[in-house]
Design a protein that fits this description.
- The protein is of the alpha+beta class and 164 residues long.
- The protein has a domain of 109 residues.
- 40% of the residues lie in helices and 34% in strands.
- It contains two helices and ten strands.
- The strands form two sheets. The chain has a six-stranded antiparallel β-sheet. A four-stranded antiparallel β-sheet has the order 7-6-9-10, with helices on one face.
- Strand 3 and strand 4 form a beta hairpin.
- The N and C termini lie far apart (122 Å).
Length: 164
């Protein structure tokens, strides 16, 4: 006696293969779409985090320092017990204060001002203006030094009276 095994016919196998191909293709397209969105989100978040960190550091440094001076390659914040130096090299803003932080941009231009007038090297200043071209977007940042009595005393002690 011959025993028959149940099996699929060729048309049934072809239909299953066609449906599997459609489902697998749809899943691949969805996976590719989600990866593209993830990397777009990641680069946008990374950009915002870098700019927010540098903005935080610049704001903290200008508010805690007593003196803002222009240097040959950037600007320096001087407090009672520390000096923080920012250097602009090509398209990189480098902050040196024991730990080095950097911000890379397509273009970085800066201007150091005192009473709305650009200052020369080693002169005191009260404002920094940065113009960044970062990932195709132009950003303008401005930081003002608020002078308090402690800053005036520090400047007078270290640099002499500026009004004489």
């Amino acid at each position: 006696m011959k025993k028959r095994l149940a099996a699929f016919t060729i048309p049934e196998l072809m239909v299953v293969m066609l449906l599997s191909t459609v489902v697998i293709s749809a899943m691949y397209v969805l996976l590719q779409f989600s990866f593209a969105n993830y990397f777009r989100y990641y680069t946008a978040t990374e950009k915002l985090n870098r700019i927010a960190r540098m903005n935080y550091l610049l704001t903290k440094d200008i508010n805690t320092s007593a003196v803002l001076q222009k240097t040959a390659m950037g600007f320096t914040f001087t407090a009672l017990n520390k000096v923080v130096t920012y250097t602009v090299v090509d398209s990189t803003l480098v902050r040196a204060d024991g730990i080095t932080d950097t911000l890379y941009a397509s273009s970085i231009q800066y201007e150091v001002l005192m009473d709305e007038i650009p200052v020369m090297q080693a002169e005191l200043a009260d404002r920094i203006q940065l113009k960044l071209l970062y990932n195709g977007e132009e950003l303008f940042m401005q930081y003002d030094k608020n002078m308090d009595a402690k800053s005036f005393l520090f400047i007078e002690e270290r640099y002499g009276n500026r009004n004489k």
